[in-house]
C-alpha cells in the first residue's frame, strides 16, 4: 500500500478542481471573504484543499502552470516545505487535541485552543502577506470554543482568513455558518478516484478497488482508511450477520473481531453495521427497494437498535470493556426476534 501524505503535505487535489477554482477566483477578485466553511463528507479532501489554499495565499497567489489544478504551489518551494513541516509563521492550525497535552482527545476542540484564533489573526503577517487559520474538524468545537471565535467572524482583521473544515456543518452554530462563505465538496467521480486507488493500492484487484470506492462513497480518504482496516472483509461480515443473524455464527464473528488487538476491526464493524441499518431503513421508509432482512422487524425497532449499537460501541471503547463480549451482545440483539 502506497500511503499519501497528510493533508498539509499533500500536493495532489483529486476531483475538486471546481472548488479550487472558486477559491482562486475569490482570491484574485481583490476582496477575499474572511471566513470559508469547507464542507463535505468525511475523506473527500476538505483539509487537503484548505492547506492548498493556505499555501497559495502565503506563496503570493502564483498562477498555476499549464496542466496543473488551481492553487498549485510546487512541492519544492520554501512555503510548501514549511507548511508541510508545520513551521510557517503565518499559518495556525487548530484541531482536536490542540493545547490539551496529556488530556488530548480526538473528539473535541476546547476553548483554550479556539482563543488562539482571534489573537493570531489580528497580528501583522510575519512575511508581509496573509495570516491563515485552518480550523480542522470545526464541528468538534465545544460551545465555549464556538463562542470564542464569534467576535473575529463579526469583526475580521484585514488580510486574515479563517478556513473552517467540517464534515458536519449542521452542528456548527447558525451564527458561525451565517458569517462564512460555504464551499461544499462532493465525492470525486470514478474517473478521478479509481486511478488514485490504483496508485495507492497496486496489489488490490481492480474489482475490489471498485467495491472499496462504493463502500467509501467515493471519498478518497475514507477509502484508504477502509483499505487499511480490511474494510471489504469487515463489510462482508456485516452483510452475513444481517442476512442470517444466527447464534452459531456469532462466536466465529466475535472471535474474528477480537483477534484484532488494535480494535480497528471492532470499531469498523460497528460503524459499517450501523451504516447498513441506517441506509436500509431509510430506503424502506421511503418505499424504495431495501434488503430483505429489514422486514424482520418494524422500522422503529431498527432505529432503536441503531442507537443501542452506537452506545455499546462507544462504552466499550471508552471504558476499555471486552470487545468480544460486546460483539456477542450486539449479535444477540440482531438474532433476537
Notes on the structure:
There is one protein chain. By secondary structure, this protein is of the alpha/beta class. It folds into three domains: 7-184, Rossmann fold (3-Layer(aba) Sandwich), CATH 3.40.50.300; 189-220, no CATH class; 229-335, Zinc Finger, Delta Prime, domain 3 (Up-down Bundle). 50% of the residues lie in helices and 8% in strands. The protein has 16 helices and five strands. It has a five-stranded parallel β-sheet with strand order 2-3-4-1-5, with helices on both faces. Helix 9 (190-200) packs across helix 10 (206-215) and helix 15 packs antiparallel against helix 16 (323-335). The chain starts with 16 loop residues before the first helix and ends with a helix. The mean pLDDT is 91.
| Series of secondary-structure elements, N-terminal to C-terminal | HEHHEHHEHHEHEHHHHHHHH
Give the amount of beta strand, in percent: 5-15%
Number of DSSP helical runs: 16
Shape designation: globular
Under the CATH scheme, which class of the largest domain? Alpha Beta
CATH-defined fold name of the largest domain: Rossmann fold
Unreliable spans are none
CATH architecture label of the largest domain? 3-Layer(aba) Sandwich
Spatial strand arrangement across the major sheet:
2-3-4-1-5
The percentage helix is: 40-55%
The main β sheet shows up as: 5 strands, parallel
Round the Cα radius of gyration to an integer and report it. Answer: 22 Å
Number of domains: 3
SS-based class: alpha/beta
GO molecular function, one term: DNA-directed DNA polymerase activity
Pfam families: DNA_pol3_delta2 (PF13177)
Protein name: DNA polymerase III subunit delta
InterPro entries: DNA_Rep/Repair_Clamp_Loader, P-loop_NTPase
Amino acid at each position: 500500500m502506497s500511503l499519501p501524505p497528510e493533508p498539509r503535505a499533500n500536493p495532489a487535489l483529486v476531483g475538486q478542481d471546481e472548488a479550487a477554482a472558486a477559491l482562486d477566483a475569490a482570491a484574485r477578485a481583490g476582496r477575499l471573504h474572511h471566513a470559508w466553511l469547507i464542507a463535505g463528507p468525511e475523506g473527500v479532501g476538505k483539509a487537503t484543499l484548505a492547506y492548498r489554499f493556505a499555501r497559495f495565499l502565503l506563496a503570493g497567489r502564483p498562477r498555476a502552470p499549464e496542466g496543473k489544478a488551481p492553487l498549485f504551489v510546487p512541492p519544492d518551494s520554501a512555503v510548501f516545505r514549511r507548511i508541510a513541516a508545520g513551521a510557517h509563521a503565518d499559518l495556525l492550525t487548530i484541531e482536536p487535541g490542540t493545547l490539551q497535552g496529556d488530556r488530548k482527545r480526538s473528539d473535541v476542540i476546547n476553548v483554550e485552543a479556539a482563543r488562539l484564533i482571534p489573537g493570531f489573526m489580528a497580528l501583522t503577517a510575519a512575511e508581509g502577506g496573509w495570516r491563515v487559520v485552518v480550523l480542522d474538524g470545526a464541528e468538534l468545537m465545544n460551545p465555549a470554543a464556538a463562542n470564542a471565535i464569534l467576535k473575529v467572524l463579526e469583526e475580521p482583521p484585514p488580510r486574515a482568513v479563517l478556513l473552517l473544515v467540517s464534515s458536519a456543518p449542521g452542528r456548527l452554530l447558525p451564527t458561525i455558518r451565517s458569517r462564512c462563505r460555504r464551499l461544499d465538496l462532493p465525492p470525486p467521480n470514478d474517473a478521478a478516484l479509481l486511478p488514485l486507488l490504483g496508485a495507492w493500492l497496486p496489489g488490490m484487484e481492480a474489482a475490489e478497488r471498485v467495491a472499496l470506492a462504493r463502500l467509501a462513497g467515493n471519498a478518497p480518504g475514507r477509502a484508504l482508511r477502509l483499505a487499511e482496516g480490511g474494510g471489504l472483509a469487515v463489510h462482508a461480515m456485516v452483510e452475513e450477520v444481517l442476512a442470517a443473524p444466527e447464534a452459531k455464527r456469532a462466536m466465529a464473528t466475535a472471535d474474528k473481531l477480537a483477534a484484532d488487538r488494535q480494535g480497528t476491526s471492532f470499531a469498523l464493524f460497528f460503524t459499517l453495521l450501523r451504516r447498513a441499518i441506517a441506509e436500509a431503513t431509510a430506503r424502506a421508509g421511503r418505499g424504495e427497494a431495501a434488503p430483505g432482512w429489514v422486514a424482520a422487524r418494524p422500522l422503529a425497532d431498527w432505529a432503536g437498535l441503531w442507537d443501542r449499537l452506537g452506545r455499546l460501541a462507544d462504552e466499550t471503547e471508552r471504558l476499555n470493556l471486552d470487545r468480544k463480549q460486546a460483539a456477542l451482545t450486539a449479535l444477540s440483539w440482531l438474532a433476537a426476534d
